[in-house]
Amino acid sequence: MRLIGWVAFLASCTVPVFANDTTAQMTTGGLEFVSHGEIAMESEELFISREEIRVTYRFRNDGTEDHSILVAFPMPEIVPDHFSPVAYPTGPEDNLFEFETTFNGEPVAVELHEYAYASGVDRTKLLRQLDLPLYPMGDAATEKTAALGAEELEKLLFYGLVMPDEFDMGEGWETRYWPSWTYKATYTWEATFPAGETVTVEHRYVPSVGGTVGVALLSEPFEGYDPAEEYRTRYCTDDAFKAAVRKSLRDPNEPWSAPFYESWISYILTTGGNWAGGAIENFRLVVDKGSPQNLVSFCGEGVSKIGPTTFAMVRTDFWPEQELNILILERQPDM
């Protein structure tokens, strides 16, 4: 079942990035997500706000035996951009996303699996050999990369793991190398699902927010890239949504003059299809908008306003075939 349609509402200030539970197994290459034929996802409820993400699941074991399995919660990739206003995770090294989970109300100890990629190749081993943190956006990664010798930096540059930045501060040209590897993370834990019973799993974590200063969707196409088409495909922005943004322009001839910041959210939905039946029997998404002055657009079906600041999408037998991407336009202060 494909997500279709669009929704444009006055929505919340900032929005997080989050993911979906799945079954998994450990292999020599890391985590391998697998299907489970007897444990069904009876329901999934997502609550999204700028302060917190809450995901509550009810899983039902339709089999005649207990099942102890490895449960995985993959986080979206973090692609570093050292010159953008993206709000990256700031939690401790062993729990960057400040992730917490409970199983039937009891706290669960989770394990964080981390990987570093460049050009689609796993370079985790190389970074560990150089004593570099796998998370590229922290001060430690920046400082340790800068402290490497010329031979090591040349190797990282060859593999696309660093980005050179040339500058002149008045004392001649200098080159600084920024960490540019992609960070992938998944939380796992073991859980036992009793035969014939339903259990409740809940996650909470602090969101990470991507975005830009200004609004790009009204920009003219250039060099084969059409911002309007990308936003329409990714966020289902339609003519009505664009008209609302255009109406807000401070200068009608300047598409970047809309008084908004962009915020982005990407939710990994497709792993929800790894449970029995491949569908989420009851799915409910709630977004808390926070401020009535903001705009939001995303691909959804049957979205309705359920409160002064909240919007909901409710589906039954929901079969996620693509990820959920949400565009938030946050009204700039004093504009």
UniProtKB/TrEMBL annotation:
<dbReference type="Pfam" id="PF14415">
    <property type="entry name" value="DUF4424"/>
</dbReference>
<keyword id="KW-0732">Signal</keyword>
<dbReference type="InterPro" id="IPR025538">
    <property type="entry name" value="DUF4424"/>
</dbReference>
<feature type="domain" description="DUF4424">
    <location>
        <begin position="19"/>
        <end position="327"/>
    </location>
</feature>
<protein>
    <recommendedName>
        <fullName>DUF4424 domain-containing protein</fullName>
    </recommendedName>
</protein>
<feature type="signal peptide">
    <location>
        <begin position="1"/>
        <end position="19"/>
    </location>
</feature>
